[in-house]
Amino acid sequence: MALKTHATFLTDIQSLLGSNTTDFSDAFLTLRIPEALQEFSRFTPFKVRETLATTDDSKELDITAIENLLWVDDLEYKTGKTPRQWVNFTEHYRNTLSMDITNKPSDVDSGIDTNEAVDNSEVLIDVDPTAATAIPVGTIIRIDNELMYVSVTGTTLTVVRGYLQTTATTHDTATTIYIPELAYVYCAKPHKIPAITDLAGAVDLVAGYTKGVRTIHIDTMDSSDVLEEDWTFTIADDGTGTVYRLTQDTTLASNEGDITFEPGLGEDIATDKVVTFDNSTLFYPRLETLFIDLVAARSAISLSTKFINKQNTGGPVVWRDWVSWGREYLAVTLRKLEQEAKLYQKARRSW
Asked: How far apart are the C-alpha atoms of 122 and 169, rounded to whole Å?
């Protein structure tokens, strides 16, 4: 679990830079942190499993729905098998994976049809017969060419429209509902360090939410914070111990908002349960220390020119001292990061 908050990172970086909070101010370092996260993550990234729907009768897997992607490590198809079914793939133009498989994916006819004409925005879809068994909560369905995520099932489905960047469109009554096969894409993404001060909210729905739901309403947070995609969080008293990950940005209004995440809820949750966002995705102390070292070294080099032609305490070569220290410290840090990169490669498929 990440121990340091954004504020603690700033303090520790400044301490490494001689507690010079005038030149290395919070504002200056806050700008450096996202840059350093990108560099840091190319050695030891944030590991994420994305769930994608395959395309019927095609070995091509569209990955354009994956945001902030650095690279793809592994691909699992078919899912839910023991042993797990890892497959080789070829990546094309950073938007498509060609799966090295013999048989092409095939959508399954759910046996359920739409029982009304559906416009391009409604999220309550009447179906026939009841879908309670054939389409459980958490299922990704396809109607014509549109994917949807099912959060409530029965004779009326509650769905997320235009799922996985498909286009929400109109559908006729008596249209067959298909269930596509799924693939797990194991990705490398940049780490995240939330800069907000209030990292705890609460579930806000009197009836609570049922297992499998991927969007919930939370409140009691700061009024207008932006909760960013790929932040991770836990829910109090969740017996499954699941760590959830935001799948899109949420801008709060009046201390509340809807968050969308994966995986779906591991179990039913009651209203007012505390939702706690992690301090960062740097879950190990050694990674936190390396990140502090990286930001400090880059900051020292970046700001060194400020001291040229100035009357500095320490003499006229202060700028050179900052450059020298920064470069030496950076060299040591990068060597350590190269070792972390080797550890990352060894840990592949230990998801």
From this structure: 10
